[in-house]
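SEQUENCE-TO-STRUCTURE ENTRY
===========================

Backbone structure tokens: a row of integers, each naming the local backbone shape at its residue.

Task: work out the structure tokens from the sequence, keeping to the layout shown below.
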Amino acid sequence: MKRWLKTVLLMHNSWLAMWLRQYLLPIVMLFPLTLWQ
């Protein structure tokens, strides 16, 4: 049970990291530009 939970968490973390890299990074990079204008 514990090992299964650990693998699920690991999978979720990698998916989350992928999602953050794909969607949040461009927003974070573009946000200051929109503030300056």
